[in-house]
Design brief:
This protein has twelve helices and 21 strands. The chain has about 450 residues and is of the alpha/beta class. The strands form six sheets. The protein has an eight-stranded mixed sheet, sandwiched between helices. Strands 7-6-11-8 form a four-stranded antiparallel sheet. It has a three-stranded antiparallel sheet with strand order 20-19-21. Bound molecules: zinc ion.
């Protein structure tokens, strides 16, 4: 990855090392907050995010019907712990919020180990990590702990305390809308419902935040940008159900999750599999110089399954690093601030910005000297000494743009056909326009 990236929206240079650190610092600030699909953890998170971008925060009351679902009761938690027969606090929510099964109902009881065990969750083949467990739609309570800790529990009386509440309240989601010159939108969606877990999905939250922050500084943008910070599944469904009238504006979209580990980029295509966003992401990955993977859409996964449901059918794919489920730290306490590194986050930032750049700048041009190849030498657009390697690539790009600019090939298509990086194609097109050899189709 290059340290500095120039994105020519407004000729801004991005210091990727600095941006990676900024994302990781924000993740460190958000990490301790106990988030779930509702409750104060999401509110606190949105409050912090609102310091970085213009953020509209919405509260949708418990009981609201959203498509086939109902907004659930709001869950909040103050404390939770277990005291062992020796009077020692052995599990403490205040040390790690992953210790408590999300949506656990309140309890304050003494019980035997046998009574307690059905409420304890471990991963026997990963004995050193705490699993992340939820029970959103069935009232239950539970604690998560390492399997090694579980094996050391003695017979005797345990004091079990969960100081939580499950009451009518609301579901909180946030959105940052950045208007462009048209009402055509690019959607980036991430989820804010996971507690102290980093790749899945604080990485998506901090990436979306920095993207929104940087896009908000760009003056000349064709597209409007919408960044959604919603609890996974129920939040996406809630947003879709309340915003059906806006859906036709969304032309391209990505779900940002698992974007900060050290793995290669993985793109999960849209349900259709052959849409414009699929081509743009493929182009960026192909020209990145990095290894990457492109996988077909599969119905399970994150919120692309809501955006890609048949009645919604939005053009939304998902650009990740290592997908959920494919890294051993997934949904455990090991998905932490060490697992996600600034450099991984910065790499995803650069790829997302390059995607936006192509979408913003993909235009179709017409060659104004189409009979034979125009004389580039006399216009200073050709190397003076032939055979020199210097400038060869951009010359190839120039010749390709002239040859394929018959009004039927956009710059992205030229890049696809020639395997020349989009940025180089775009720069050549700009030079040719300056030299009056090229004109945008329908520009008159
Ligand atoms: Zn998850």
């Amino acid at each position: 990855m290059n340290k500095i990236m120039t994105i020519n929206f407004d000729k801004i240079d991005y210091d990727l090392e600095k941006i990676g650190k900024e994302m990781h610092d924000l993740m460190t600030e958000l990490f301790p907050i106990c988030r779930s699909i509702t409750g104060d953890g999401v509110r606190k998170t949105d409050d912090i995010l609102s310091q970085h971008m213009p953020l509209e925060i919405h509260e949708v009351p418990t009981g609201t019907k959203v498509f086939d679902w109902i907004v659930p009761k709001e869950w909040n938690i103050n404390d939770a712990y277990i005291i062992d027969p020796n009077g020692e606090k052995i599990i403490d929510f205040k040390k790690s919020n992953v210790h408590i099964m999300s949506y656990s109902v309140p309890i304050n009881e003494k019980m035997t180990l046998k009574e307690l065990t059905p409420h304890l969750y471990t991963i026997p083949d990963k004995p050193d990590v705490i699993p992340y467990r939820i029970s959103y739609y069935k009232e239950n309570w539970g604690f998560c702990l390492t399997h090694n800790q579980f094996l050391n529990l003695e017979e005797g009386e345990y004091q079990v305390v969960i100081d939580s509440s499950l009451k009518d309240g609301s579901l909180t989601y946030a959105e940052c809308f950045l208007p462009g010159e048209t009402d055509h939108e690019i959607l980036v969606s991430c989820y804010t419902c996971h507690p102290s877990l980093c790749n899945d999905n604080l990485s998506g939250v901090v990436l979306s935040t920095l993207l929104a922050k940087e896009i908000s500084k760009i003056n000349s943008k064709k597209y409007s940008y919408r960044f959604l910070f919603v609890p996974e599944t129920i939040g996406a469904i809630t947003w879709l159900s309340l915003n059906e009238s806006k859906l036709s504006n969304i032309k391209h979209g990505l779900v940002a999750t698992c974007v900060g580990d050290a793995g290669n980029s993985t793109y999960k295509k849209t349900r259709n599999g052959n849409l414009y966003i699929d081509r743009v992401v493929t182009n960026v990955l192909k020209n990145s110089g990095d290894d990457y993977k492109i996988i077909d859409y599969f119905p399970p996964g994150s919120d692309e399954r809501q955006y890609g449901s048949p009645g919604i059918n939005l053009p939304v794919g998902s650009l990740m690093k290592t997908p959920y489920g494919d890294f051993p730290q997934y949904h455990t306490s090991a998905d932490n601030l060490d697992f996600v590194k600034p450099v991984g986050l910065a790499d995803s930032f650069s790829k997302y910005m390059n995607i936006f750049y192509i979408i913003e700048n993909d235009k179709t041009f017409v060659n104004l000297q189409p009979k034979g190849e125009p004389n580039l030498g006399k216009r200073g657009l050709y190397r003076t000494v032939s055979g020199q390697q210097d400038g060869y690539e951009s010359e190839l790009a120039t010749i390709s743009v002239l040859n394929l600019s018959d009004g039927n090939h956009s710059l992205l298509e030229i890049s696809e056909r020639t395997n020349i990086d989009f940025n180089l194609i775009k720069q050549s097109a700009d030079r040719l326009v300056e030299s009056k050899l090229l004109e945008e189709l329908n520009s008159k």
